[in-house]
Amino acid sequence: MPSGFFGSHKSLREANKAKLLDSLYKFGAMTQVELAELTGLSAGTISTLVRQMADEGELTTSNTIRNGRRATQVELARQEGVSIGLTISTRQLHLVILDFTRASLGEHTLPLAFGHKPDDTLHRAMRLINETLTTIGAQPDEIKAIGVGLSAPVNYREKTIAIPGILPGWEGIDVITPLTKVFHVPVFVDNDSNFAALCEARVGVAAGKKNFIYVGSSYSGVGAGIISHGLLMRGVTGMAGEIGHIQVDPLGDICACGNRGCLNTVVNERRLVSLLSITHGNLTLDSLVDKAIEGDPGCRRVISDAAVRIGTVTANLCISIDPELVVVGGTLARAKEVFTDPFAEALRRLLFPNALTPIEVVPARYLETSPARGAAIYALEHLDSTVHSPGFLQGKK
């Protein structure tokens, strides 16, 4: 027998094992038959691998029923430890705690005053993390990693906000060091829309899709996360997808970025609620959406018009990127068809009319928590690149 046979056999097993682990980590528990279809490995190879890896404690199996037949469901063995996902915007701080199976153990949202200070906000975030850990019966030393999504363009190399004024007072702020000093774990920082796209790719409506766009609306405006060929497109500095800063009115208001008439100047919270100030008094973006869901015609009109504006700009992005799917999330998307229908109509009206594959528009699975979930998932996936595939959705650094 050739001397290299056992080495080759071991290498093949490791390659097959990596395929299996990567599939389970991306898409969660599935049957052995589904694993075989997804990985392209034979049913016998999958069965042998699953049995060996279950004996080694890497996987767990259970009996289930699929299509009326008995099947063996496979999932990653539960590991001790948690991942923290935080998002910080002009008005809110959102926290999600996930375990290693990406199940949510706890979620909290804190309102923030406009112009909140970084030191105070990070201190509140740390306190909220500890309080939530206590609530779920966990300890701070169980934290393995933290992801932080910022509602502003982020310089991916510097890990700081790239454009001053969009998240006031946070320009040049080092978010990583304070959290690292307190919790002694790796901390990852990126734009919140990028993390939202990752969430929907992993555990949301875009699972299995390699080319899609996530479009999210928040208090300060709109952002997008772009997945192209399975990779997160960040661009040279990390500012790819900042559609909120595409000009829609050359004579419009000055945007926080310094330019005039950006999309964000016409779809941010302050602008939208001002359109209803005479008839509805003081509103917030959340109360505007709530009233629209209840059927208020004025609120529905404001959201519909905003959806058309956002859909029009997204159409230009789609022509450039050619995705198979557009996922919409954020506060405005909570209005469901009041937002998604006019958004989809505006999008399709401006795309190629005879396209072979029309672009589908779907609401995010996690409408308002995708960014924080994605931050926690990203942190988990970067803990151990030998187990959790580093290539998918990292993008260029």
Automatic annotation (TrEMBL):
Coiled coil: none
TM helices/strands, residue ranges: none
InterPro entries found in the cross-reference section: ATPase_NBD, HTH_MarR-typ, ROK, WH-like_DNA-bd_sf, WH_DNA-bd_sf
Domain HTH marR-type: 17-57
Residues making up the signal peptide according to the UniProt record: none
SUPFAM superfamilies, sorted: Actin-like ATPase domain (SSF53067), Winged helix' DNA-binding domain (SSF46785)
Top-rank lineage group of the source organism: Bacteria
Pfam families xrefs: MarR (PF01047), ROK (PF00480)
Family per similarity comment: Belongs to the ROK (NagC/XylR) family.
PANTHER family: GLUCOKINASE (PTHR18964:SF173), ROK (REPRESSOR, ORF, KINASE) FAMILY (PTHR18964)
UniProt-recorded name of the protein: NagC family transcriptional regulator
Organism of this sequence: Aeriscardovia aeriphila
